[in-house]
Amino acid sequence: MATPGVPSPWAAHRTASWGTACTATTSVPELSIPNRFPEPPSDATLEIGGTHPFEPSIVDFYFAAIERGEKPTVGRFSLPQVLGEPGPAALMRTENSSNPDIRWIHLPFNSMKYTKDLIARVCKDIGFSGVDEILKKNVFSSDKWLDRLHHRAEGDGYHATYLETSCFDINLTDENTRLMHAHHTYFDSEGASMGLFIPFLHWGTEDILAQRNMKLRALEAMRKSNLRASSLQPPYAQGDSNMLDFYTDMMTDQLFDSENPLHLRRTLDQFYYTHTPDTSKRDEDQIVSKHGPDADNKGKRPMQIVDQLWLWILGSNTVITCFDRRWVEENSPQANVYDNVLWQLRHNGQAKCIKSGFELAHLIIEQASSYFFNYSHSLEAKLRFKDIFRKVIGEISDEQIKLFRIMADLSGTDAPMNFTRDQQNCLFDVHEEFNLLYKIRDVIDELTIMKRVVDEQMSQLNPLLALHFHDTFGRHETKQDLAIASEYDLIRHEIRKMNWDEREWFKRTEQYLKAHHKEIEDMMTETLRVYDALRDTISLKQNNASIFEAHASRKESEAVTLFTWVSSIMLPMSFISSVFSINAIELEEGGKIRLKVAMAYIVPISIVISVVFVVITFFRAIREWATDPISSGKAKRNLQGVCASMSSTGASKVARQGSQRKRLHRKSWVEAAPATNGYADPNTV
């Protein structure tokens, strides 16, 4: 039940079907998406003052003025002014703004050092007693701050520094909560305080990432030169703007701070592969870069980035946020989450729907988590990630179907043994399938990382729900509270309990996150289907190749069998023919050598050669030595051992006896040679 005069945040933007459904019931369909807020035009800019976009911004809400049609008051000031003197409160008084109903302070970077200084300054402006004690025990206690910091190990990249996803309660004293509620209304808000750290998807470009990495390498080189961190010189670059100079100074000052390091924007792979020192090769292979409309414009292509949203609510009416912005000079609602939120508040009427810090937090969370999933007609085609991914998945699926059809057509025409070489290549070659498999694995990998981001966002819905409910009704109700409450207050209290999310901000956030999760799940399901189809195609081709090889082996076996039969017939005949072809005295008239002398040469030599080849075949160390002249020392030692073991074998004895007989016969033959003109006399040999 909405408060009279306070519209639901998207009531004016429902479609006819959505409006009809919500008229009948207040429940939202399980995975339907509330109609998105109108997107800012592509040329929309915001004039919010300041020197450059990396300066802190302050937004003040006055409910009465906003109801009259006025806009929230916005101011942008230098960092020293906000963190030091005169401070946020005094600065906004120069904008004719004091004691607002809600104040939102935003830092456009994730600096732990400046965040602590800012919250301390805000607590001081409010008038908290014991600011240092409050910060140490409540806001920045170890379990809410340093324990959630993922420290960078030695050898890790700078992307290994981040705050773990979490949502937690901050317990402020009743006195400090009352100080924060300048216009406290009984039962309207209990002034809950909380902190939230979540990642969200955003966009970047290759040239900006390269520019930042160049500065990181320069700083790292100086640090390795054993210079003190305080003596590092900021790596300014010629042509840098005031905005880039500011960020360069901040990197130089805080990048190597172990307690309060600066957190940088991370690519998809840097977010997921935390301990991989260098992800530059993987970053260049992002799907939106390789397959988007700007694929040929290498060096300036868009990239998927994971940013961090840090959000604190103090006493329900002071909101502090920190998240990075893209390195663009103009205040473009289509380029940055903060500018988009501000455009929705000032130019789209959403300020009228904000009545507490929690509702403003829901708008910020929604815009941060939904920014990447924006499909507005005014959005550039290169930033429509869903269209790019579905195009790539569809192209891979189409190629897989074509390859499968070619294989199926060939398999049904004739036996593979009768195919030409080109046809056999089409039937067995899996080169193209492996290329497609590589592409689809890239898609699966990136979808997995995006799903991880959305999962971490959804994991904080229940804690956020509990804290939002606590802000509306408090942790508990005492008998004294109920005793002093009027009957009207009690009835109003019970009615609000029945529908505590009056303007349905939490319901909207929940439905958006579920819808984003389902979008990625649907794409993942389709991608896995194509992946399985590719694996099936490869498996079928490998099975065809195995069958072909089996047929070829069988034919070869038949040929070898036939050759063996022929050899078994021809070898004895060849042996007999060889024996009778010897010019032996016993076999033919006029022979010049005795048969036993010829056999004394032939048999030992044949045995030695056979033994050598048998040994080479069955002893691995000898085979390695014979085939690799530069063999290892171990193989040589093994060879020596084998040879030593063979020295006493029968084969070596036969070889020695054969050699001895050969020398004796050669001696007698040579002695008889002069008398017979070089030939031995048959009668004397």
Automatic annotation (TrEMBL):
One GO cellular component, as annotated: membrane
Molecular function via GO: metal ion transmembrane transporter activity
Disordered: region residues: 275-298
Taxonomy of the source species: Eukaryota, Fungi, Dikarya, Ascomycota, Pezizomycotina
Compositionally biased spans, kind Basic and acidic residues: 278-298
TM region(s), chain numbering: 562-585, 597-619
Signal peptide: none
Cited InterPro entries: CorA_MIT, MgTranspt_CorA/ZnTranspt_ZntB
Protein name, per record: Cora-domain-containing protein
Claim: Transmembrane is one of the keywords in the record: yes
Keywords in alphabetical order: Membrane, Transmembrane, Transmembrane helix
